[in-house]
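S.,

Sequence below, as promised.
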Amino acid sequence: MYSRFLLENGVFLSLMDMGKDLPEYEEIPVPLRLPENQQRAYDDLEHAFHEIFKDRSCEGRKLARKLLSVSLNLMMAYPDQPYGHKPIVHPVTADPILVPEDSGASTDETEKDARALEIIRAKVAAEERVLPYVNWVRLDSRTRLKRFLTDAGVRAEIMEDTVPPRKREEWVANHLRQGMQVMIVNPAKIEKGCASVRTPYFV
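The prediction came back faster than expected:
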């Protein structure tokens, strides 16, 4: 079916093929430091997992395989939310193996928060609208960012994951009319452009 009816009538394109017609895009990483107490707690977590993974016995290797994704998720999430994480338990006995330390609170403004606010407020002051991407939707990063922005006098909204795809363009248009300056969103929800192509107000 594919080769008979579609192959001769299909056009296969990659982003590289369309690159010359896409708008310019530059990604600039901003290096930041964790607060000293958070860095120490992070290092303790890293050391604890390292000790678990050093066990080369049969049982140790089995445990390491089961905890690998758990350790990666925690180590990636901890810098953004150094509090509120559940204890890591043994996958068979359910006994606690390690308990992540709460080295911060949701009300604390970190260096990352301050830098994000600085960038966003500069864009808003220049009458531009900003689209912060937040990947870790199971953390409270979105609500924290909105609270900090609101306290700074910026009109910010969160596009929740519950907004159905067919309603996203309408959602954006409605909130723009209401004065939205910043739209906080999980990038997976607009990766097809359905919520932003027709509303080119974001940077």
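Strands lie at 88-89, 96-98, 156-158, 182-184.

Coffee later?
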